[in-house]
Amino acid sequence: MKILIAPDSFKGSATSRNAAEAIGKGVHLVFSDAELIEIPVADGGEGTVEALAESMNGQIIIKRVKDPLGNMVDAEYGILPGNVAIIEMASASGLPLVPENKRNPLITSTFGTGQLIKDALDRGCKEIILGIGGSATNDGGTGMARALGYKFLDKNGYELTEGGGSLIDLAEVDDSEADKEIFKTKFLIACDVTNPLTGTEGASHIYGAQKGASVKDIEHLDESLVKLAAVISQKYARSNANVPGAGAAGGLGYGLMEFCGGELKSGIEIVLDLIKFDSYLDGVDLVISGEGRIDGQSVYGKVPVGIAGRAEKKNIPVLVIVGGIGHNVESVYNHGIDAVMSSVNKAMSLDEAMSRAYELLVDSSSRAMRMIKIGMDL
Q1: What contacts 55, CB < 8 A, 6 or more positions away?
Q2: Coil, strand or helix: which one is 265?
Q3: What single string gives the DSSP state of each residue in 220-236?
Q4: Of 307, 337, 341, whose CA–CA distance to 324 is shortest?
Q5: Residues with Cβ < 8 Å from 349, sequence gap 6 or more?
Q6: Residue 74: phi, psi to the nearest 5?
Q7: What pLDDT is stored for residue 304 in this prediction?
Q8: Strand (E) positions, the chain?
Q9: What are phi and psi of 352, to 5 degrees?
Q10: CB burial readout 343-352, b (16+ within 10 A) else e
Q11: How far apart (Å, rounded) are the C-alpha atoms in residues 31 and 27?
């Protein structure tokens, strides 16, 4: 029996690599001679850099950059074979970097994310993949662009202060000093939300409050992004403001499209293509994936569903092992997943389940294999 094990991380309790190892150990408790292929996977969000660096023998780079408030922090990104950089914007511009009492999207900036991009360009990377979830910002990617040489000016030719709030006074975008390597580099943006840049479904209205914005702030931020889109549209005779995903990460999705020529794609599809996932499916009898929780929303870009879509094309059954099973989980069965099993084997607190994640994954994997063995004997 040949089994491909490709889980996402179980956030806060097990990395993708740890999860794959634990599931594999459980398989071997029942099928000791099974051939296992273990591949750490992620969807472009938290853990993507680590998972891809491990699975592709990449290098982790530590870079001192500005956090959303301008304080210096150590952020990391990965460089993979073929001069491909993988960056999680949250490592430089993420919400957890800002204390709750200091969260203010009027002033927070994506400048640090731009510094990571700049460092990757300086190291010769010709393709940059960005996971853009979990931002503390609402600046339309202008902070990122500043780090790459763009300038944002008011009607008097003065540079605006950083953050989304100042964009209401934007009159001109100056790209004369933008890093020329940008335009020689392929940018892929891992994004699984569909929000436009502005409006009631846009970046400010949907995500502003969790970043510290008041009702008044949200209106101001939305008007500021409208102004940004208008100035850019006039300068470049194009507009990506209504592209699904433009509003991701406080408009960073929009900024990466406009300032870097980036392309928005499903995060899990980017990752699976990058690691050449389909090539591992040859001769496989069963695929096992997993993540911390699965529910009806998991059909929108989560790792197990993305993997199941690939396996289904080759008629390979897919088992998913998760920490928690949520509402409307039945919908995943229409997307290539054949069975879902919880790793939790008794009533326990979330803290206990997370602290015992490894042993629970071993146990649940072995239980699943015993059920498969019964089916084989029928």
Answers
A1: 39, 40, 41, 275
A2: strand
A3: HHHHHHHHHHHHHHHHH
A4: 341
A5: none
A6: -90, 120
A7: 94
A8: 2-5, 35-38, 59-66, 72-80, 84-88, 127-131, 151-153, 172-174, 186-190, 263-265, 286-294, 318-325, 339-342
A9: -65, -45
A10: bbeeeeeeee
A11: 6
Neighbours of 277 (CB within 10 A): 21
For residue 55, the number of C-alpha atoms closer than 13 Å in the C-beta half-sphere is 31
pLDDT, position 105: 97
> Whole-angstrom Cα distance, residue 287 to residue 155?
58
Domain 2-41+290-377 has CATH 1.10.510.10: no
The rounded radius of gyration (Å) of the Cα atoms in the chain is 22
Q: Calculate the CA dihedral of residues 220, 223, 228, 232 and round it to 10 degrees.
A: 180
Alpha carbons within 13 A on the beta-carbon side of 271: 37
Name the token pair of 92: 């430089």
What is the full DSSP assignment across 134-148? SBS--STTHHHHHHT
Single-letter code of the amino acid located at 184: K
Token pair listed for 221? 């931020």
The reported pLDDT for the residue numbered 257 is 97
User: Above pLDDT 90, what percent of the chain?
Assistant: 90
pLDDT of residue 334: 94
Do residues 171 and 286 make contact, with C-beta atoms less than 8 angstroms apart?
no
CA dihedral (345, 350, 356, 360) positive or negative = positive
pLDDT < 50 regions, the chain: none
Q: Which residue is listed with tokens 């099993």? A: 341
User: Which CATH number describes the domain made up of 48-267?
Assistant: 3.90.1510.10
pLDDT of residue 46: 81
Residues in the chain: 378
pLDDT for 297 equals: 83
Tell me the pTM.
0.90
Query: How many degrees, rounded to 5, is the angle at CA 216 between CA 215 and CA 217?
Result: 90
- Which amino acid does the sequence have at 219? E
- Cα-based distances in Å from 343 to 30, 320, 347, 350, 359: 17, 10, 11, 12, 9
Q: Where are the domains of the chain?
A: 2-41+290-377, 48-267
